[in-house]
Amino acid sequence: RVSSVLNRDVKQFGKKHMFDASEETCWNSDQGTCQWVTLDFPHTVKVSQLHIQFQGGFSSRLCTLEGCRAGEELVKISDLYPEDVNAMQISFAVFQLEETVLDKLKITFENSTDFFGRIVVYHLRVLGER
């Protein structure tokens, strides 16, 4: 699930584009503060890395990671401070601090580098093991 899609145009800017491995497509949020992405995994996973690629100028200065097991409330895992660049960014130290076993992961983009609060994500990958 995502917080919003630009102009509600899911065909062109929908959430599926974060996972299609295409350089031509992306998820583009609508404007507004605190955009987010929630991932519900089909089974419990031990998360080890988060890969994210923003469009420069439409990234987040602060990302808050929250997670939980099935039937539980989300709890804060960590804060990430991505760079405002087009490159793939890999974060894994936050997950190695403690064993992070989840059924759900929420990434909140607290403050966008875009004046209108839009976020553009070309690629999002969560790596781990069952």
TrEMBL record:
Top-rank taxon of the source lineage equals Eukaryota
Q: Where in the cell is it found?
A: Nucleus
A cellular component term from Gene Ontology for this protein is: nucleus
Nucleus in keyword set: yes
Matches recorded under InterPro entries: Galactose-bd-like_sf
Q: Which UniProt keywords apply?
A: Nucleus, Receptor
Family the UniProt entry places it in: Belongs to the NR2C2AP family.
Write the protein's name: Nuclear receptor 2C2-associated protein
Species this chain originates from: Fulmarus glacialis
